[in-house]
Amino acid sequence: MATTTLQGKRIAFLATDGVEEVEYVQPREAVENAGATAELVSLKPGTIQAFNHLDQGKTYDVDVTAADADAAGYDALVLPGGVANPDFLRTDPDAVRFVQAFFAAGKPVGVICHGPWTLIEAGVVSGRRITSWPSLRTDLTNAGATWVDEQVVTDGGLISSRNPDDLPAFCAALVDRFAAVD
Length: 182
Fold this sequence. Notes:
Layout: E1 10-14, E2 19-20, H1 21-33, E3 37-42, E4 47-52, E5 55-61, E6 64-65, E7 76-79, H2 84-89, H3 93-104, E8 109-112, H4 116-122, E9 129-130, H5 137-142, E10 146-147, E11 152-155, E12 158-161, H6 167-179
Parallel strand pairs: 1-3, 1-7, 2-4, 3-6, 7-8, 8-12, 9-10
Antiparallel strand pairs: 4-5, 11-12
Helix pairs in contact: 1-6, 3-4
């Protein structure tokens, strides 16, 4: 029997082509299994192409574009990684504004692997404690964050994780933190 701790919650997943498939699929399944409605927000309508490291994965249907999405309609945000995905997102002004709106409203945000690149562009990591894929350490430190090498780091409403190996702990932390949202 699935838990209903996120019943009535609406969670946005911001991703585009190049998303690491497992970092999108497992957190989405976790919040949906907990009772939430999840929606894929992306840069363009249609579908996005996921990857398993460098191998093509499945495609996923986009629910709404970042240009048309309203952060006010969501309870939380998840930013999956992959190398290409956050690199594309951070260059899109609508995606960056969408991320900034969650932080401005004090809503929880989950991010994994290379996903913090989008947070850096959004200007929301300074003064925060965060983890990521190790190669982002310098980028995050230069943006004013304190980078740590831990499985899951929670700093206020920001939940971060390093890589797919951390997904069980990351997914549990997302459900717990998102359930605390009124």
